[in-house]
Amino acid sequence: MESSLLFYLLCVWALNCPSIASVEAMEQCPERILGNERRRACPKKCLLDEECGSKRQCLCDGQCGLSCVAPGRTCPWPLPPAKHCDVALLSPSPSFSALLEVRCKSGYTMPNGLDVIIRRCQGDRQWSGDEPVCTTSQNGDRAEEPDRVPVASCSLPDYDLLSMQGSAAVGSSIKYQCESGYVLVGHSQNICHKNQTWQYPHPVCRRVFCPPPKEVDRGHLVAVHRVEYEVGNTIYYLCKKTFFLDGPNQVTCLPNGTWSAVPACRARCPVPAQRSRVIVGGEKRWPYDLTDGVVAHGENVTFFCQYPEKQCSFTATEVCVDGQLMAPSCYLDPTWLQFKLFPHRLVSEIDACDPADLQ
Ligand SMILES: *[C@@H]1O[C@H](CO)[C@@H](O)[C@H](O)[C@H]1NC(C)=O
Ligand SMILES: *[C@@H]1O[C@H](CO)[C@@H](O)[C@H](O)[C@H]1NC(C)=O
Ligand SMILES: *[C@@H]1O[C@H](CO)[C@@H](O)[C@H](O)[C@H]1NC(C)=O
């Protein structure tokens, strides 16, 4: 109910539609009527997102019809305070297609007789329609001269890239934010003094770039090499053959101009045992049966050791860390003769010690 009323008001203001019966039909994007735009410039006309490049989308932009717009861009907000009306943002942020309500104070109306209008944030980063003016309607037919003088406030900066929260009225404070991909240079908050000057100059938004990402030893970047990268760019890493990718396989250029965590390429480890079985991946195997006689980075290798003066074995586990795998100090590799002549008496083949034997 309320939203259809809003839509009708928007309709009356921005689109001049003839009757409330056609509100349903207006849900579709209107055709751009050439020469009839109240706007200085409509963005590029389109039918599909693909026509709009990477940063823009093909969206309905009021009387401009389907147009290439950057939906993240914002319209001026807050607006300088105006006399005889209250202005409220009806959307969470003043970005594309956000709605703004301008309501005349009691006893005041706009020249068209309405006391409320809705303005829409257009693709050209301006609010739809003209600056509304609320005048008193008490003098019968003769409306009072429009009073365009705003209440005392400080001037607002060029809004490109910079969005603001708060009020520019005297005694108020304001917070600034830059669009994603830009960093704010200067003060992020400001106060409007009684003499209508800001405490600090307005900040500026500087574009953020990441330097080329770090090279990774034994790996390579899957990317076209560039001098700088934009925020949000992603680059993939691959490790050279046999090396294990430790960490994410991609890095992203962060809003502060640094890259997310870079991975490492880890080497596999030769197993420091030849004539004894070891446990790898839960299986008891001869080292020469392992592919290339190596285990992956991070793999556990369990060795069999002999308990002194007893014919029983116990185990000790070591981890392969980037090419380094040491045999545990208790491990002794059997001699060639032991291996050939008494394979069943190898430490890895005899019974495990009873836990009681080990105390
Ligand atoms: C305006 O007022 C502030 C604070 O009272 C003061 O610091 C500043 O110098 C004044 N600026 C001008 C241009 O008078
Ligand atoms: C950049 O941002 C990331 C994530 O927010 C943070 O972890 C990192 O410390 C920041 N780096 C610098 C230099 O501020
Ligand atoms: C190796 O052993 C440790 C400790 O017992 C365990 O946390 C880890 O998950 C094991 N790694 C593999 C690859 O099985």
From TrEMBL:
Main subcellular location of this protein, as a coarse class: secreted
Compartments annotated for it: namely: Secreted
The UniProt entry, under Pfam families, shows: Sushi, Sushi_2, WAP
- In the UniProt record, which is one GO cellular component term? extracellular region
User: What are the annotated disulfide bridges?
Assistant: 178-205, 210-253
Keywords, ordered alphabetically: Disulfide bond, Glycoprotein, Heparin-binding, Repeat, Secreted, Signal, Sushi
Native source species: Triplophysa tibetana
Q: What Gene Ontology molecular-function terms does this entry list? A: heparin binding; peptidase inhibitor activity
**What does it do?**
Binds to various kinds of negatively charged substances such as heparin, phospholipids, and dextran sulfate. May prevent activation of the intrinsic blood coagulation cascade by binding to phospholipids on the surface of damaged cells.
Record's signal peptide: 1-25
Q: What is the lineage of its organism?
A: Eukaryota, Metazoa, Chordata, Craniata, Vertebrata
Q: What is this protein called?
A: Beta-2-glycoprotein 1
Instruction: Read off the PROSITE patterns from this record.
Output: SUSHI
InterPro entries linked = Compl-Cell_Adhes-Reg, Sushi/SCR/CCP_sf, Sushi_2, Sushi_SCR_CCP_dom, WAP_dom
Residues annotated as domain Sushi: 73-136, 152-207, 208-267
Q: Which domain of life is it from?
A: Eukaryota
